[in-house]
Each structure stands twice: as structure tokens, then as C-alpha cells.
Amino acid sequence: MKLTERILFFLGILALLLLCVHFYFKPPVTIEKIKTEVVHDTITYEVEKVIFKPVASIVDTFYVDSIIYTTDTTKCLETLKNTLYELHAERSYNDTLKNDSIAFVSVFSKVKQNKLTYQKLTYRNNAPTVINTFVDKRNELYYGGGISSTGMVNLGLMYKTKKDVIYGVSYSPTHNTFMGRVYFKIGR
Fold first, then answer.
1. What single DSSP character describes residue 188?
2. Which of 21, 60, 120, 152 is the most exposed place for a label (fewest CB within 10 A)?
3. What is the pTM of this model?
4. In which element (H, E) is residue 78 found?
5. pLDDT digits (tens, 9 = 90+) for 74-108
6. 78 vs 9, 32, 67, 70, CA distance in Å?
């Protein structure tokens, strides 16, 4: 065999071996990682000043047939004491108006002598806010080869950058030449 035939035979075996290795092992896969950060933004509003508007009330009139007099002063004093205690006692109420994944709203109220003396409104925003979403791209390296119809054999490497620019270098042992290539992405 001549030297050229041996080189072509060797390169054909090498190309066949590269194709077998390429299909036996899976080709390099681009993995794009998407990282999403979720931040819960909490805004609390407090309302300190409450303005009360008087509302007209309806007074019912009634007639008493008989008046009951108590002669027991201890019982009368005890009833008076309990009534005054209930009148001057300060009661606190806490009511949750809304509590879900979007918002939390509650009202804290104080009542004394049957009047609202203090009220505080608390609001907290629970809706998640997406701040950063980005794609993590990596540089990639490819290898390969080919044979043309004229018998030209090519072996080469290609390097793809994060900005989708591809640089290629190839060598043709049959013609003893090197080639360099650059590819740019068109559109999306």
C-alpha cells in the first residue's frame, strides 16, 4: 500500500472510531440553570388616629307598672359595685379580618364605658415578589471530523462562548492544512 492510502485508511478508521465513541457516549448536553429568588416583602401599616362620628340612636320608651324596692342594702351596694366595675372596665378585642397568601389584616380595639377608645389597624403584604431570574449559561467545547466526496478528511474542535459566538479550528491531514472559523448567532 502506498503512504497516501495508509493515511486515508488510518483516518477512516479514526473517523469511524470517533463516530462510535460519539454515539456510545452521549454528546455534551447544555444545561441551563434558572435560579429564582423569592423575597417576601413585608409592609406593615399602623393607624394610630381614629375619628369617631356620632350616629343617631333610636330610644325606645316603655312604661313600668310597678317599682320594686329592695330593702337589702348589701345586695344593692354589691349590684352597684358590679355595675360600676363593668362600666369602667376596659375591654380589648383583636380581630383578624383577612389572613391568606396575599395579605394579613387585623384590627385591635379597646372599649371603655361602652365607647371605642383605641383602635389599631395592622396590614402586612404576604404576596411573594420575584426579584432576580437569570439563566446560567456555560462555555461549551465540541470535537468532530468529516470526510468529503473528494477524499478530504477533516478533524476539528469548536468552542462556543456564553455570548453564543463559536470559534472553530480544523486540520486536514490529507492536504496538510489548518482552517479557522468564527460563527455568530443570527436572531434568537
1. -
2. 60
3. 0.32
4. helix 73-88
5. 777 888 888 888 888 888 888 888 888 888 899 99
6. 118, 80, 20, 12
